[in-house]
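Title: Comparing notes on inverse folding

I've been comparing how different people in this forum approach sequence design from structure. To keep things fair, I'm posting one structure and asking everyone to reply with a full sequence. Here's the target:
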């Protein structure tokens, strides 16, 4: 293989860190403009878990928010709290005019259904698209905050100039957090979309026909070389902890490297963009609130 052939076959890393910086800078500018008008954007994160990885993520959001000039309050209800307490907290925050964005962090205590609790978040403050009403509006093409991780997939594709109109896209995973909303967003961009899941027979038959593959399952190494066509684009949303304390995605990076045209890294791909979008959504919600009250 010649040098030119090797270069043409190289897999481009679809990095998200630069994009995240751009989005955070935009949010910082908007937050400063709101602050000069006497409005401090405020994000509230409701936590009902003692999961350490979740705690690390919440701390990361709070630090990033502070750098952007966004107030971030963490409402820690404890890992054993009753469902009624979670819902009451979400309803109280929804009614609080000083709060502009609300996130319900997962995991929740055993037996507590996320969708039931998230329905208490006011749609105007639902910056992570958790309320089922938000997902319904998104599917219908009406204005709504989409889940930040699903939006991050589209933002990453746009940032790296991946065309979507008319392209065949396969989403592996059907969660309300990533799979379903990502499929809806891709449809809005005129892509032809197929959703695969745990009951899909012969997964490779679908993924090898795709120009763009989005994987959000939570199974390390699920997607290998046999699952992708040459020069496809792959967005890996998986974040699976390793025994060494690191993170790996749902894609076997070593197996697909050199075959696919682009692959988002884990970490450093979708993750930082998701956090940045939560902040952008919060300042947008604050700006919308300011317009409604003037």
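Reply #1:
Here's my take.
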């Amino acid at each position: 293989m010649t040098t030119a052939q090797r270069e043409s076959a190289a897999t481009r890393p679809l990095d998200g860190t630069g994009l995240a910086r751009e989005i955070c800078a935009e949010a910082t500018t908007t937050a400063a403009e709101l602050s000069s008008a006497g409005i401090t954007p405020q994000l509230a994160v409701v936590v009902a878990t003692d999961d350490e990885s979740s705690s690390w993520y919440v701390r990361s959001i709070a630090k990033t928010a502070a750098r952007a000039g966004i107030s971030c309050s963490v409402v820690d209800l404890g890992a054993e709290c009753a469902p009624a307490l979670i819902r009451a907290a979400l309803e109280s925050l929804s009614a609080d005019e000083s709060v502009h964005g609300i996130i319900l962090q997962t995991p929740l205590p055993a037996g507590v259904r996320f969708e039931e609790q998230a329905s208490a978040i006011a749609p105007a403050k639902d910056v992570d698209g958790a309320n089922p009403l938000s997902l319904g509006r998104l599917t219908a093409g009406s204005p709504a905050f989409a889940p930040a991780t699903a939006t991050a997939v589209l933002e990453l594709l746009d940032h790296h100039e991946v065309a979507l109109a008319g392209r065949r896209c396969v989403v592996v995973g059907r969660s309300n957090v990533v799979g379903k909303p990502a499929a809806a967003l891709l449809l809005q961009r005129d892509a032809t979309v197929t959703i695969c899941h745990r009951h899909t027979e012969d997964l490779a038959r679908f993924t090898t026909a795709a120009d763009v593959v989005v994987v959000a399952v939570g199974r390390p190494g699920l997607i290998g070389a046999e699952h992708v066509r040459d020069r496809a684009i792959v967005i890996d949303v998986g974040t699976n902890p390793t025994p060494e304390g690191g993170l790996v995605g749902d894609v076997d990076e070593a197996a697909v490297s050199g075959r696919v045209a682009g692959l988002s890294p884990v970490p450093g791909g979708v993750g930082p963009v998701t956090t940045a979008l939560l902040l952008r959504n919060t300042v947008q919600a604050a700006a919308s609130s300011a317009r409604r009250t003037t």
